[in-house]
Amino acid sequence: MLLIAQGPNPSDTWQRAVPPTGTIVLGRSTDAWNVPWEPFLSRQHVELTPKIDRLSVRRLACAANPIFHAGKQTDAFEMHVGKSFAIGQTTFTLADPSAPPTPSSGDERILVDARTVSRDELDRLAFRDAPHRLDVLCKLPDVISSATDDPDLFARLGDMLLAGIRRADAVALVASSAFGGDAKEQTPSQAAPSDRVKVLHWDRRFAGEGTFEPSRRLIVEAVEKQNKTVLHVWGSDNTEGATNRLFTLRGGFDWAFCTPIAAEACPGWGLYVAGRFSGVEPSTLLAPWKSNELRDDVKFAELVADILGALRQVQVFRERQGVFRRFFSPGVMNLMSGRDASNALAPREADVTVLFCDLRGFSRTVEEAGGKLLPVLQRVSAALGVMTQNILAHRGVIADFLGDAALGFWGWPLDHPGKAEDACRAALGIRAVFEETGRDPKHSLYGFRVGIGIASGRAVAGGIGTQEQAKVTVFGPVVNLSSRLQDMTKLLHVPILIDELTAAAVREHTAPDIARVRRLAKVLPYGLETPLMVTELIPPASSEGGLTNDDLATYEHAVDAFLTGDWNKAYRDLHRIAPDDRGKDVLTEFILKHNRTPPPGWDGVIPLGSKG
Questions:
Q1: Spatial distance between the Cα atoms of 199 and 191, rounded to a whole number of angstroms
Q2: Residue 328: DSSP 8-state
Q3: What is the DSSP string of 454-493?
């Protein structure tokens, strides 16, 4: 349904699409539902509640002036399509947009004139009504920025065109699908599937005159062929032989022009304006153009199209940046905003540090949800949000989301020496959030834990994929290693494991009050042939319930004794460490499993029998 407002002057009009649900307040305090020309409208005057086939109307207690419906003053009523109510000098009519205007072919019209308007011609023209036109144009940026969605923008734009072009009887925003335009129509189209031209929005100066059919021939000529404003002036109806009579068809329009909106953000869009010559003889049809009257209107439409295209392009860029900010840190965003963004995103080999973070407790949460999966999805999204925020906050790049896991990396597109340390800071930040929320049963992340693996090495990073679809990601052995380390956190009972290269960088460049490391064990992961020393990343000693520096020193002695086969010493050292430390379990259990005696040919390696 549409609500159409019509004031005492022809330019005092608007139409708004009524949403199918919810409540609307009509009044001066609501931007989209304000009637600026009506002095008798209160700040909050009318409450409108849409129903299936009608509109419920209720005058609010704070409204100072009455409402008239069906010739009577009333405070509450319901009205169907075609009915109206009035406040002051403004009439509000409920209309049915289910049969929107569709462009007509225009083949039956006889063109008196068809001209393409050049920018040079308009640039030399000075507005004769400049104050009024500029006053309307100055409002356009606010109109675009304050619009809640495309239908709201289109409605406001129609109001502006009618206000700025006083001779116009109807206006429309049209689009050609030949440019891949994807704007939603105001209402479902009744046009044939083969039609390329759609009406996104239309408006008439007088609501009671019904719809109109823009000329498809004119739109195609302006938007698709010329990419310039095209003016058509129609003459007589050839089928009736009335050669000296002004031709009128479905609305009585004698002239119309279409101005393309040349912007990537408005693909195939155009402004369509139509009007009458008010009984002018055919011989003088072109006089308004020669006397600058129509040229004034065309120049105004050109300015509206330029401003609209530029501002929507800025909006699109901001939206794209908003999307990219979900994956790239500010430093990467600055690089992508430069001239060489395409080359910056090209895949290349780089030394990177990769972080793989997996959410624990997800399967149990799904089982306990009893089929109510949407709340579970919201909780998982919050968990992934914690991972994303910490990766981006420490200059990382989001490479992928794998179900309930996140993959981030450092070292591309900008290399920096502190990539390993930044990855470790991000991992500790993620761990801290989940440890804190794990103590609060009311928190959405309660019951969730994380396992994190970090590895450093050579990889290929960048925009990887096909011409049809690509994404920024990273691949190589280092990615597999980070995933393996994440899997091993389950077997070794610690939250974060890092490889030897990352551990060396942390030891050399990171102060103990930021992060600490301890060699956990030398292991042979399931399915691999080469053993590796895995290291645990640990928060500073000041962390609540954390290991002391003495604990770490004692554990280092235990590892040395374990590797050399002095298991009695290793066992004694392990028992000197805080009893709630799960990290020592792997060595303790392996020693007890072998009755405190190293097996023959002991090489210090603990084989891991599964992926975890």
A1: 10
A2: B
A3: EEEEEEEEEEEE-SS-EEEEEESHHHHHHHHHHHHHHHHT
Of 190 and 124, the one with more pLDDT? 124
What is the rounded distance in angstroms from the CA atom of residue 534 to the CA atom of residue 511?
A: 20
Mean per-residue pLDDT, 546-555:
92
pLDDT at 344 over 80: no
Output the pLDDT for position 283. Answer: 45
* Region for residue 453 given its phi and psi (left: phi exceeds 0; alpha: psi -120 to 50; beta: otherwise): beta
Residue 188 predicted with pLDDT over 50? no
Contact predicate 507/533, CB 8 Å: no
Amino acid at 9: N
Output the furthest CA–CA distance in the chain (Å, rounded).
116
CB-CB contact of 195 with 109 (8 Å): no
Do 181 and 263 meet the contact criterion of CB atoms below 8 Å apart? no
3 state SS for 536-558: EEECCCCCCCCCCHHHHHHHHHH
User: Which residues make Cβ contacts (< 8 Å) with residue 319, sequence separation at least 6?
Assistant: none
Beta strands 516-524 and 606-607: pairing type?
Answer: parallel
CA 415-421-424 angle, 5° bins: 120
Would you list the DSSP string of 346-402?
S-EEEEEEEEEEEEESHHHHHHHHTT-HHHHHHHHHHHHHHHHHHHHHTT-EEEEEE
Please report, for residues 270, 307, 506, the alpha-carbon distance to residue 313 in angstroms, rounded to integers and kept in the order given. 15, 10, 45
In this structure, of 188-197, 283-292, 473-482, the range with the lowest mean pLDDT score is: 188-197
- Amino acid in position 142: D
Rg over alpha carbons for the chain, rounded to the nearest Å, is 35
